[in-house]
Amino acid sequence: MTGADSLIQTALAAGVEVCFANPGTTEMPLVAALDRAPRMRAVLGLFEGVCTGAADGYARMAGRPALALLHLGPGLANGLANLHNARRAAVPVLVVVGDHASWHLAADPPLAADIVSLANPVSGWVRPVRRAADVAADTAAALEAACAPPGRVATLIVPADCQWEPAPGAPVAVRVSAPAAVSGDRIDAAARALRALGAGGALLVGGAALGVRGLRAAARVRAACGARVLHDTFVTRLERGAGLPDLERVPYFPEQAVAALVGLRALVLCGAREPVAFFGYPGGRSVLAPDSCERIALAAPEEDAVGALEALADALGAPAAPPAESPRARPALPSGALDGAKLGQILAALQPEGAIVVDEGLTSSAPWFTASAAAPEHTVLALTGGAIGQGLPCAAGAALACPGRKVIALQADGSGMYTLQALWTMAREGLDVVVVVCANRSYRILQIELARAGIAEPGPAARALADLSHPELDWTALARGLGVPATRAADADAFAKELARALADPGPTLIEALL
Amino acid sequence: MTGADSLIQTALAAGVEVCFANPGTTEMPLVAALDRAPRMRAVLGLFEGVCTGAADGYARMAGRPALALLHLGPGLANGLANLHNARRAAVPVLVVVGDHASWHLAADPPLAADIVSLANPVSGWVRPVRRAADVAADTAAALEAACAPPGRVATLIVPADCQWEPAPGAPVAVRVSAPAAVSGDRIDAAARALRALGAGGALLVGGAALGVRGLRAAARVRAACGARVLHDTFVTRLERGAGLPDLERVPYFPEQAVAALVGLRALVLCGAREPVAFFGYPGGRSVLAPDSCERIALAAPEEDAVGALEALADALGAPAAPPAESPRARPALPSGALDGAKLGQILAALQPEGAIVVDEGLTSSAPWFTASAAAPEHTVLALTGGAIGQGLPCAAGAALACPGRKVIALQADGSGMYTLQALWTMAREGLDVVVVVCANRSYRILQIELARAGIAEPGPAARALADLSHPELDWTALARGLGVPATRAADADAFAKELARALADPGPTLIEALL
Question: Does A384 touch chain B (CB under 8 A)?
Fold first, then answer.
């Protein structure tokens, strides 16, 4: 058994079953070890951002880490943006970066780089392996760090000689801790504040508490005391749809968020952080809730927010079951010219029970989010870290984690271009993904931001830097070039027809919706 | 004038005329400043690796820096791999990274990250701007660092408020130093060693000394004393072709390189570092020249290697002009099935005078390199840092720097997939680039490395991780999707015909050569 074998065997014993990989020469012993471990599914990405984004999506849906196997500093660098998103999602990811043989680093060969410096900004845990005999224990330590609630990116740097040299045989066991329970004092403090305030109080719910159990507990709290229940603009994973309690989403633009929170007197944080503006603007502010609003920390992200919400509902004397949700009508199918509103209505009207919707539609997907409250139960995965190019890889990873569920990637065109290589992985692995490209042929958000910055008449440079129409991207050609069948929809009727067909067939497939 | 204006005006005054950009909300004041500075050409890349690779290619050909404008930590992260290549190329690049408004960072908004930690591994100089009034001076300091010989990546981090706030008007002047002259003692020491050794001595030439003046001086040295003259496997920029002295290339695989250098008794380093193995292998070594070989440092990369070579030739009593190169015959056009050897012969047979060949063909381009010694004078740009995905962006940047010259991107398919978005920039800017995709539908180098690692019969995981044939990439569809006309060549005759046509027409165009 080599160091590489001890890594793969330790990961397998801890329940890691998928390896999203783009290896190189320094990872050849790990590739050989994968061949000796057929239970580990090796999935090739043609760019490292695909591997890391897929590991994020996989973790969100499987609730356990995948392995992302990357090649040296530059391979890690290519995967960093989606690791940034995974860090903000607080999901477990095991990143394994091969490095030069330890004795070769002093020669400063061309591919050498400071991997620790690259890894630190996205990782909650980083360790370079020192010798082959340590690989299994270091892998176990990485997995314990990755899986400690709520989850984090753990990066293990493994020199090639530590991979190819002999190592002890047995995998090292991984102990995963449960989230810590919240004390009765904090439950009582939150109950006291909310009971007194009615709609002047609010819960901000995040993390695992956006699952069905947490949502039902939050709805019981709402029913018992009248508090508002909110979630962040960009969620790691949110269960949603008709029959489930619907929460308020904190708006994206800060002035809208401030308006939504005005008058709030207490904000109870349950698995969520204080809501802050995505960007700072001249004369603007960072914090969105009123300064006068009391902050009450019910459960930190690493604590048991679901249990805390249930205890809070009990303390408020809420009935054991949440109130029945009133029936919601799915939107009718609109007709005529296609725009973001109609696209959202059509998707909400047609999306099947149990769909996983990966939302990187940005400016195009807001109408869908509103309309889909009435859709059958589904799961939403959003762009937690703001680093675009997350949607398509995340969809691939979610599909691998949930083979029985339809994945819908609601994808902005500009962002989709960052990691379009994910389409090839969808094709190769036969993943059941419907990609809807919202083709407005612009960085629309930048056009909005230019207007917000008071630039009413952008000049040629500003216009050009937000424009994707010259030349026009042909997403159907791009998809076919990567092995994914694709169609184009130029109006609402065509989009509804193509979407219905795509949802009925096994994927992957891509629809370019011209907006 | 805002801080953003002072940055753009300082860069313009220093001769920076191109900005490869993918800005976001935190760079809007810089975008507005670009609109007020029409002499700065703003070029959009649909992924940051395109911007940074283009800045590298531009610097190699223009001899001065471009500006790469990136969005926060994740935007920089996406550009790091090609900045790593630029670092190894030792070319000047000015990287400007927008950051959150300084007062907003404490809120740790979703896109916040440790930008300095990300920048350090690829940068020779990093500075976060503290206030708007400092932007011009900090920009000048960055440019002085970038342009100090031999050139480096300088990263300036500019918070949004430092961009939008008022700043002093005048651009700050940039003082660029010339490379330091080499002392007569070192010239004499090198001359003494080489005079005594004949072919037992060698020059390893790098950096600016691989231009026409340096090559001619090296040929004079060779003629005077019989020393061998070598260059690194992967060059920043090499002038080459019939009429120019042809140097020996250090082979890629270490055992071949060791064999090529066996028996060497003195190695004179002129603008080059000690040659080392690209990777370390079990039982292998880092250093390629014999341990017994004397190392003689004639000119460090930051010193005047061209002047040192000329002085060395004079010291050796060489004639003032190098010996005339004997005529070399371009290869004939082969026929029949296409392989890497024939592809290289055809390209060498047809490439025009003054072509710039960006060589990321990897395993497919070695035959071209051999055959093209007989081609008309041309320039070679190679993958200096080993971080794949450099070829297409570098070709775009080189074409922007040299509008009158034909650029040929000799591109491996697996590597090309990393930054295929560069094709769109070629189309948008009307760049005269012929892209030749060497479509062997595999990571061929990994198949070779598996065999070298003794894995004669790779299992399914190892085979899959080096295989790009399922599904097959269709590069003609990908190119068309990005606005670049494309054809496919399945045999040598078709490739010669398509290449001749592509070279005759203005670009961009892409030929998928099936190997």
Answer: yes
